[in-house]
């Protein structure tokens, strides 16, 4: 890299990532092969349209690669249809809503502070400007309440029920939600679609370690950079091929121009890696590590959500009498990165929060094992309750990460 300023910050970032424990639940480390694809010459190519139907010449190679990404995505998720062009999870959601709804239609989604994403109806997102949202709350245990969702479907008569979240630590009963929507549709004049945004749990779905929403929802959106361990980007899937035209045109030309074919190449590599049997072992370890950390914090007396996936919530206000922002900053100062997060029934503002969200997708990619996940729980507990000094905690972090793989050279098995 001839640009010395940019190179300097590449190096600083590699050092930061290598020396720290990454517990942000939405992050992961793509392989060197995914990164190589993303840095490829495909970045130079305009390919508006879809394979075989482009607005530009010279698309014979990108067509093969985009079709490869589509076929691998369909195989991975047992889908009839895949669109690999969304630049991000947010754009996938924008296109999915547009494919199914008219402006002003009604969407029923989770209360945002209980774990929904901005694109699920936040006042600062396009979503609340284009559609009318109503919200279902979690129950007192922080779990989905199917009875309440059923009642709200009948009361609100939405055009779409949305499931899939950013900070929900439990399994989502897709099959039961489908049954509730079908039952509602059997007596409602307004047809309600069922959409799942599986951005967070897509890797768990791909590994077959939870229900596959593609079997039950009309449309499923995802990111590719979280538990799937791919490049930063989005994905739309459906079991219903008849939605293909509406979804395709909602991506291009409605919400995007030229597809990022270099990122699509990286998605193809990522899906190939996720199809390998080793990916299932990796994902099982992520779930094991997450649970080990959650359970150790609980054993030490902290208030945690419990977990059935790759993340859990730690109530730092109840546990240590500090807010999420303070906890995030303290942990960052010893080399542990996580994010402040609202918890169910939170009384503090989003800039502070009562909790932090902790996930093990990234650290497990580097080699974190169960014993280390327990050690990490102890470091978090001890440093936030001031049982140990910051420098002692920093040394403990350093001794864990020195046993892990370098983030710059990670390789994962691939099925071609
Ligand atoms: C559930 C969910 N959907 C969508 C997104 C948006 O993805 P992106 O940041 O790629 O727009 C996120 C991001 O965190 C998410 O958690």
Helix/strand layout:
Elements: H1 4-19, E1 21-22, H2 32-38, E2 49-50, E3 53-54, H3 60-77, E4 81-83, H4 89-100, E5 106-110, H5 126-130, E6 132-136, H6 146-156, E7 160-163, H7 174-185, E8 193-197, H8 202-206, E9 219-223, E10 234-238, H9 244-255, H10 261-275, H11 277-300, E11 303-304, E12 311-315, H12 316-320, H13 324-333, E13 336-337, E14 339-341, E15 355-359, H14 361-366, H15 370-384, H16 390-401
Parallel strand pairs: 1-13, 5-6, 5-7, 7-8, 8-9
Antiparallel strand pairs: 2-3, 4-10, 9-10, 11-12, 12-15, 14-15
Helix pairs in contact: 2-10, 3-10, 4-9, 6-7, 11-15, 15-16
This protein binds pyridoxal-5'-phosphate (PLP).
What's the short story on this structure?
The protein folds into two domains: 33-275, Type I PLP-dependent aspartate aminotransferase-like (Major domain) (Aspartate Aminotransferase, domain 2, 3-Layer(aba) Sandwich); 277-407, Aspartate Aminotransferase, domain 1, CATH 3.90.1150.
